[in-house]
């Protein structure tokens, strides 16, 4: 193997070497451009807000301080809201992935009579929407206002996720599914014991999409559960904190007092802190799903 690599390197043309060098430089620049905004946000979030107004903070805080995080976490409701966000993310992701996979398996079967009609009906929902007011009236008539399940049930089937899973299932060898039927397994047993284990890569991809959407969602809280403080989510509470900091800043000519010993915060510092707080759970989870994410997007996007 080493001999082959040496021979390959020996006979490479100058053009190949230039291409590799340029390619490496471009990829390095892409990494820098991608990571810099987040690193800058992290530096601003742990820098003293009063000092941050001067600017000039790039990769490292100039005056280290936890005052921004103290301001964000000073409210006891923020921890309960984080718990609600975790619950809706976990429950919503599990139910959405399972139901989407079950529907995707159904419409992937060639012997399903309404396969084409159901597929078109789902796709049409991606282009046409009833609108905000009809959706609100529907949720109200279903009795889901001020209810935890309003976070789960309306988005239980994602059409984009459905298409990805269906494409993946259609690429599975039909002989495997036929073998399970010959052994006497029904469709549900085949789905649980054969299809689900084989579709783990694409299910992990869809789970990541769904979890990010559930974790970042706040507008449905504003619409349906804004009166129920016990059902408020982390993103909604962070949004309210940002609004309060903006209002306080307007009233104090550029500064907002955090009420914890006279420390000052600004909308910029609070925005950076909120970004870190909201992004950290996804950043922690993503490395564990990365290998499934790449494989799922590669295989799920192309019909075998």
Summary tags:
single chain; 304 residues; mainly alpha; MetI-like fold; two-stranded antiparallel sheet; 14 helices; 69% helix; MetI-like
What does this entry look like structurally?
There is one protein chain. By secondary structure, the chain is mainly alpha-helical. Helix content is 69%, strand content 1%. The protein has a two-stranded antiparallel ribbon with strand order 1-2. The longest helix has 34 residues, at 267-300. The two termini are 32 Å apart. 25% of the residues are buried. The model is unreliable at 253-261 and 300-304 (pLDDT under 50). One of its GO terms (biological process) is transmembrane transport. Pfam families: BPD_transp_1 (PF00528). One of its GO terms (cellular component) is plasma membrane. Its main location: membrane.
What order do the helices and strands come in, and which of them pair?
Layout: H1 2-10, H2 14-45, H3 49-52, H4 67-72, H5 77-108, H6 115-124, H7 132-141, H8 159-170, H9 174-182, H10 187-198, H11 200-216, H12 219-224, H13 234-251, E1 256-257, E2 264-265, H14 267-300
Antiparallel strand pairs: 1-2
